[in-house]
Amino acid sequence: MGLVARVIEAAGIPTVTLNMIWAYQNIVGMPRIAAIEHPFGRPYGDVGDAKTQRAVLEAALSVFETAQEPGHVEHLPFVWHESPKQTKWHPAEPSPIIALMQKRRS
Amino acid sequence: MSDAQPRTVDPWRFTGSFLEKMLSSRIPDSPAYDPIPWTPVTKPLSESKLALLSTAGLSMRGDRPFDMDFERKNPTRGDPSWRALLADARSETVEANHLHIDTSYIARDLNVALPLDRARELVAEGRLGALAQTHYSTMGFQGSDTTTQEQQSAPEIAARMISDEVDLALLAPV
């Protein structure tokens, strides 16, 4: 996704990437990052939580106004409403690459 | 929901230790990328047309879905194509194909990954200029080969955004 952001930005359209694993920045070099501590699959907020979805959208959009230089990372203040242990985000079956790695290890 | 204190987002909060180890081991301590492209923002949000992009493997029902069989047969690769999504897309009119997340949340509320309803509210209130006609999805897992996504899909998406006169693009990996 970061690579896609770079291509769109280079084509002349400013981008913000709302990103959980913002640490990838050192590999990719994204123009503007809004870093968010939300679980995978639900970057904007939980099902039916319009209030958080809207607040995250507005916070991410505000990075278009605040970022002044390439590679800016804005850490958004949102705290997910469940603990990591309570939070279910994994698919029902391990992804093919994870299944392959588990097979190699066993 | 939020606290006022500045904080640093923990990128590994939800990964678990196995994924953290696997993913963080690839990240260098210092920047290792080519110069970052930059297009200055020239208009206020209230006059800007916004396009959204999600990596959730979203496609309109009736359109060709992202190819999960390809990844099942080639576990180190992912479908590198992209899909156009209508601005009035909803959970009921979209399907999500992505083998690395639980897509049932998106099936119940598209706004968790593609907040078109929320963006429309901002347009109605005048905080955002307009919503683009077309929005976009890729499928986030590309594994060992990002060439097609970078050299084919991304330029096609950018060209479509330009022809749609998009001012700002907000991307959200899942």
Structure commentary:
The complex is a heterodimer of chains A (106) and B (174). Chain A has 106 residues and is of the alpha/beta class. Chain A is 38% helix and 12% strand. Chain A has one domain (2-105). Chain A is built from 4 helices and 3 strands, in the order αβαβαβα. Chain A has a 3-stranded parallel beta sheet with strand order 1-2-3, with helices on both faces. Chain A is globular, with a radius of gyration of 16 Å. Chain B has one domain. Helix content of chain B is 26%, strand content 16%. Chain B has helices spanning 17-24, 68-73, 104-108, 116-124, 147-163; strands at 49-54, 58-60, 83-86, 94-96, 130-131, 134-137, 168-172. The longest helix of chain B has 17 residues, at 147-163. The two termini of chain B are 20 Å apart. The mean pLDDT of chain B is 94. At the A-B interface, α1, β1, α2, α3 and α4 of A face α1, α3, α4, α5 and β7 of B. β1 of chain A pairs parallel with β7 (168-172) of chain B, so a sheet runs across the interface.
Strand content of chain A: 5-15%
Number of helices of chain A: 4
Work out the radius of gyration of chain B. 17 Å
Global geometry of chain A: globular
The greatest interface between two protein chains, and residues involved on each side, is:
A-B, 81 and 92 residues
Coarse shape of chain B: globular
Instruction: Sketch the major β-sheet of chain A.
Output: 3 strands, parallel
The figure for the number of domains of chain B is 1
Reading the helices and strands of chain A in chain order gives HEHEHEH
Note the quaternary state here. Answer: heterodimer
N-to-C SSE series of chain B?
A: HEEHEEHHEEHE
Measured as a percent range, the helix fraction of chain B is 25-40%
CA(first)-CA(last) distance of chain A: 32 Å
Mean pLDDT of chain A: 95
Strand content of chain B: 15-25%
Q: How does the major sheet of chain B shape up?
A: 5 strands, mixed
Number of helices, where a helix is a run of at least 4 consecutive DSSP H or I residues of chain B: 5
Low-confidence segments of chain A, ≥5 residues, pLDDT <50?
A: none
Low-confidence stretches of chain B: none
Q: Helix amount of chain A, in percent?
A: 25-40%
What is the tally of beta strands of chain A? 3
